[in-house]
Amino acid sequence: MELTRQVQMTTDFIKKGVARLAEQNLKLLKGNEKTLAELQARLIKTISCLNEVKPEQINGAENRILR
Q: Which residue among 9, 13, 42, 49 is the one 20 to 30 A from 3 at the CA level?
């Protein structure tokens, strides 16, 4: 699998997992990156999005049933 697809899948997986734990809808990115710079921007956007989730939104998630 090429690096571009690996980065896209990994960032989507992370965002989906955190969204479920925080019971939020985190917008996924389009997945049209072609260059290393675009992949780096995708990583930065993903980290920024994850930083918006507060610990209180995830605390106790281990006791919830995820849907």
A: 49
Cα-based distances in Å from 9 to 6, 47, 61, 63, 65 = 5, 14, 23, 27, 24
For residue range 21-30, what is the model confidence (pLDDT) as tens digits?
888 887 888 9
Q: How many residues does the chain have?
A: 67
Dihedral (Cα; 9, 32, 38, 55), 10-degree rounding: -40
